[in-house]
Amino acid sequence: MKRIIYVVILLSVLIGAGVLWIRIRGVDAKPGEEKPAAEESRIKHDEKGRVVISMDDETQGNIGLLVAKPAAVQLNPELKSYGRVLDPAPLAVLMTELASAQAAYFVSSNELARLKSLAGQGNASERALQTTQAAALRDQLAIRSATDRLALSWGKGVAEQNDLPGFIQTLTTQNAVLVRIDLPAGETLPALPTDARISTLSGNSVEAQFLGAASNVDPQTLGRGFIFIIRPNASGLLPGEAITGYIRVSGEPLVGVIIPSQAVIRTEGAGWVYLMNSGSDAFTRTAVALDHPADGGWLVTKDVTTNDYVVVTGAQTLLSEELKASLKPD
Fold this sequence. Notes:
Blueprint: H1 2-24, E1 43-45, E2 51-54, H2 57-63, E3 66-68, E4 71-75, E5 78-85, H3 89-120, H4 126-154, H5 156-159, H6 164-172, E6 177-182, E7 195-200, E8 205-217, E9 224-230, E10 242-248, E11 254-260, E12 265-267, E13 270-276, E14 282-288, E15 293-294, E16 297-300, E17 310-313, H7 315-327
Helix pairs in contact: 3-4, 3-6
């Protein structure tokens, strides 16, 4: 009896294993029907190692891709450097000292002239005259000290402004700002610049007028500096704000194309654009150097030409599709 029970149990186990094996092998499928092959990956790489993403016209339309040929442009050569917005508070303090010294000298010099006139008439003592002379000389030296410190701290371009009080007022009210741009250590310019383009961390670009060379070397960068003024301060720059300066220098103009800002994506620590291939069904992610900001975009001097079609709307969506496809298992 026990033997019969063991046989029944063994048959049950074998039957259950057979059913499981059949399900795993796909016996439930219809006879002659094959499983669909895995969809070929839409992400490939060209001979240069660049990512190429394939996409049909319908999908392009669904995600709203737009392409355009970039415009040709040429700009004066520029030297890229870094700097900051200067705090006008120390300048205002020096201006107050200078104004106080000038006011004191105005009083002491007038008193000296009066005593000299009285002394000539015998109505002033020699001691009073000498005391007044010393006071006038002291006030005159105070003016010279404040003027020298102004020039040594801020350079002649600032110190020699025609209306220095009015000039400083525009800075303290932030209607205008001073920026200092420092060259790399050991680098010099063949001639003084005339102006520069200032790019902020937010990507805004404004024009700056050259005021003069800085009177000292920056202790951090160890490079020579140049002072520029941005007037009016339409971008709302604040003291201490970091900026990138593009100092215009003499030389051959830069020739390239303008890439709109919305066409540029940032990933892998670099800037990229998507270029549409000749068949209009694939896009190649191409690296671009973001060294020359321009109005509304970037000046690119290589790897993109006026004959290329650049994705100007939907570049970020393409990057997302690329990343999603790369995460799918084989």
